[in-house]
Amino acid sequence: MELALTNDQTAILDAVDSLARPFASASIHDAGFALVSDRLDQELADGGFLDVAFDPDLGAGSAALVVERLARLPYAVEVAASALVRPLFPDLPRPFCLVLEGRSTRPIRFLKPGATVIVVGKDKVSSFTATEDQVRTEDTLFGYPMGSLLVDPSMVATTTHAVSPEVLTTRWRVAIAAEAAGLLAAALESTATYVTDRQQFGRPLATFQALRHRLAEAQVRANGVYWLAMKAAGTLDAGDAALAALHAQESARATVYDFHQFLGAMGMTLEHPLHLWTYRLKALISELGGRGGQGLAAAEALWGES
Questions:
Q1: pLDDT tens readout for residues 47-67
Q2: For residues 65 and 107, what is the distance between their CA atoms, to the nearest angstrom?
Q3: Fold for domain 165-303?
């Protein structure tokens, strides 16, 4: 596996950082649990950053780098599915919302009228465009704009695509892992900055050994999620993708509590931006069947069905 970025990938990330710089911080007092920016979304689309995977010389690996980098922003933007799944459906408009057949009653990230809903079944993949009467926006504790479908996708006129569920779910898992990698990195950085600045008993919190050990473990987990995501994006192997998503969801579960605990009372408020990353991680923990679903998928990919 090549670990160094190519010249093209370096140039793409430099351009992403330049575009995203005005969105690196935000006034959060009126943001609630989700912070969104139509301007950022439009600039990413206009700049072609969501189309990276359409270039065969760049592919899913470069797209995953873009997803990871943009996930570090405090804004929740529909990037992961557009960058990594949309190349399978080049003619469908974004935003993309991914739904497992039979689980459409759960709140869905970025669902709104006009969104493309991709329904993944056991034997087929279908899609439809959500309409006003099919969607209800939801106020949830998650850090994404969420919506609920008011109809069962099986009762809606859908288009069936010549895409296998296995290929789509592999890319979906890569998207989960790449986005989680960026969210974990940003949450860890936010937490480390706070405990470095916060004084207690006459010294920074970051100097206490118990905190340092747990922050070091979180750093190891964040690094692992990143590299597993990049490997899965590079190979698009079902087993690699399942393991990457599994480690991402398990690491999110293991670290989010610590991050908020380290901030003490401030970690229980909306006055600190930490929740803009951790509450998105909470949503990702249960996506695509959660850790159990990824574990089963990894076992089947690596050892076959028993």
A1: 999 999 999 999 999 999 999
A2: 27
A3: Butyryl-CoA Dehydrogenase, subunit A; domain 3 (1.20.140)
